[in-house]
Amino acid sequence: MNNVRTVSDTKRTFYTLHTRPINTIYRRVVEELMVEMHLLSVNVDFSYDAIYALGVVTTFDRFMEGYQPATDQESIFRAICQAVEQDPQHYRQDASRLKALAASLPIQDLIAGLSQGSSLNQDANLQNRLEAIKSNTNFKYSRLFGVGLLALLLESDPEFIKDDKQRTETLKAIANGLHLPEDKLIKDLELYSSNLEKMAQALIVMADILSADRKKREQRQQELNTSAS
Question: In whole angstroms, what separates CA 86 from the centre of its chain?
Answer without folding.
Answer: 16
